Amino acid sequence: MRLWRCAVFVAALLPFLWWAFQVAAGQAGPEPGQYLLLNFGQCALILLLLTLSLTPLMKLTRWKGFAVIRRQLGLWTFSYGVLHLTSYLLFILGLDFSALGADLQRRPYIMVGFAALLMLLALAVTSNRYSMKQLGKRWKFLHRLVYIALALVLLHFFWVVRADMGQWSAYAFAGAVLMLLRIPVVSRALGRVRPRRGSGPKAPRFS
Amino acid sequence: MLIRTRKPHHIGENEVTPESVYYARRRFMAGVAGLGMAAALPRGAWAASQYDDVEQGSHPDWFASRLENANWQAVTAGDNDKLTPFNDATHYNNFFEFGTSKDDPYKHAGAMTTEPWTIEIDGEVARPGTLDVDQLLGEQQLEERIYRLRCVEAWSMVIPWLGVPLSEIIKRAEPTSDAKFVRFQTLMRPEEMPGQRSRFGLIDWPYQEGLRMDEAMHPLTILSVGMYGRVLPNQNGAPVRLVVPWKYGFKSIKSIVRISLVKEQPTTAWPTINANEYGFYSNVNPDVDHPRWSQARERRLPNSLFSTNMIDTQMFNGYGDEVASLYKGMDLRKYF
């Protein structure tokens, strides 16, 4: 399991290293900041969808490996989200914070993205065992924010699309399927595909 | 704004210049004279070899024969407008027929067949017809025009185009008095254009653009067939495209197959998708924001992680002296 965790860690780090290398090698085009911004944002969305697919996968396969990487992938999602925001502040706004204020007030897609990242921040800081213990039942309730965050991220992306909805539709479809799998009836059916042996897996952290 | 120009010598002998065009040109020239610019540039000193980092294309006959007699640097940009490297101008494009990413056009546009190519001229003209590029250019001398290109997405470049004034081509077709607008249409060929095959595309293909007659006849408006001393690369709109430097880039429609003179303002691609975000005129205007981002400033490309290379956007992209009079009395917030 430790090896598996390490493998996931490296796999999640690789995109960052690759894009950083592309920029350093001058292969990222005439607007490297924009290149990083778009890639980090898209990576965060993919990681969010992957994170949300772990619980259904675990129910389906009963393999604990999916459970043990859930916190890690959640934190990676947050990290790429932070990189996305940082790219926007540094490379698009050029650290002009008055422009940020104006953007936040007037541009709904930026507000929505910002709100989603704040939610992910709340989840990230309460992802440790201590917070789980302190929050008790409320922890699970709090972490259902991730569903709202997904909706906001998709809305954020939707508002950025200009000419073709193809890519957005694929992500939205994946998100919709992952939500469907959480409807209690569906979720129970998923659990019956492979009958539980012994004590079964630990209670999921993200429901 | 600094524009240096030499009056082209090759005006067709067989036609009388319409009065509006005559005055537009006079205003244009007067603006230049007003800057006290008389210094003639050494004729022919500017050669294609000037652009040394340029990947040379294979030049069709119609292009090669005209290149020798091109009027180099007929219009130059401002002193601070450094030319965008060829590699950036050809690897960072919006040409949605080939995909939505900036690198899709150079990856996919190679599949577009540009020979043979014909352009249909129709509508309110006395001489409609279907022309190849050679016939379209006619006797017109190629001029090099170094223009700023301001994308509606708030980035900009500086490109040395090779082309001819659109006005000369329109005049040759002899527009009737009913011709109030010009509509342009891009190639529709889904088998060579993946963006046109997408089922999730928002653009109503074929891509259409339009200009008011006086905008189309303005001396700054050109049909371009080349850039950086060579033929246009496919991703930049080969074999023939429009360039209107005081409007957002999407007005400068690429790979044109049809030019129609029409009575009514034509429906164009972007306002059809979202009329709140894109107007028919789409003049570069720092005071009218796109609903999703500010237009007050622009990122002059290439930039780097250490500098956004942000500069103030100029009204009419800095061509106000030449074109502001076209919009006298118009509320540019309403007609954005």
TrEMBL record, chain A:
**Record-level Gene Ontology MF annotations:** electron transfer activity; FMN binding; heme binding; metal ion binding; oxidoreductase activity, acting on diphenols and related substances as donors
Q: Where is it located? A: Cell membrane; Membrane
What GO biological process term is on the record, naming one?
A: protein repair
Cofactor(s), by name: heme b; FMN
- Membrane topology term: Multi-pass membrane protein
Could you say which residues form the signal peptide?
none
Q: Which UniProt keywords apply?
A: Cell membrane, Electron transport, Flavoprotein, FMN, Heme, Iron, Membrane, Metal-binding, Transmembrane, Transmembrane helix, Transport
The residues covered by the Ferric oxidoreductase domain are 41-153
**GO terms for cellular component:** plasma membrane
Quick one: where is this thing mainly located?
membrane
Per the entry, the cofactor note is: Binds 1 heme b (iron(II)-protoporphyrin IX) group per subunit.
Instruction: Specify whether Transmembrane is a keyword of the entry.
Output: yes
Among HAMAP family, the record links this protein to:
MsrQ (MF_01207)
Which named protein is this?
Protein-methionine-sulfoxide reductase heme-binding subunit MsrQ
Automatic annotation (TrEMBL), chain B:
What detail does the entry give on cofactor binding?
Binds 1 Mo-molybdopterin (Mo-MPT) cofactor per subunit.
Q: Briefly state the modifications made to the protein after translation.
A: Predicted to be exported by the Tat system. The position of the signal peptide cleavage has not been experimentally proven.
> Could you tell me the keywords of this UniProt record?
Metal-binding, Molybdenum, Oxidoreductase, Signal
Annotated binding of Mo-molybdopterin, by residue: N93, C151, T186, N236, R241, S252, I253, K254
Q: What is its EC number?
A: 1.8.5.-
MF terms from GO for this chain are: metal ion binding; molybdopterin cofactor binding; oxidoreductase activity, acting on a sulfur group of donors, quinone or similar compound as acceptor
Xref: PROSITE patterns: TAT (PS51318)
Catalytic reaction list: L-methionyl-[protein] + a quinone + H2O = L-methionyl-(R)-S-oxide-[protein] + a quinol; L-methionyl-[protein] + a quinone + H2O = L-methionyl-(S)-S-oxide-[protein] + a quinol
**Cofactor(s) recorded in Swiss-Prot or TrEMBL:** Mo-molybdopterin
The family classification in the record reads: Belongs to the MsrP family.
Q: How does it assemble?
A: Heterodimer of a catalytic subunit (MsrP) and a heme-binding subunit (MsrQ).
Q: What does this protein do?
A: Part of the MsrPQ system that repairs oxidized periplasmic proteins containing methionine sulfoxide residues (Met-O), using respiratory chain electrons. Thus protects these proteins from oxidative-stress damage caused by reactive species of oxygen and chlorine generated by the host defense mechanisms. MsrPQ is essential for the maintenance of envelope integrity under bleach stress, rescuing a wide series of structurally unrelated periplasmic proteins from methionine oxidation.
> Under which name does UniProt file this protein?
Protein-methionine-sulfoxide reductase catalytic subunit MsrP
Gene label = msrP
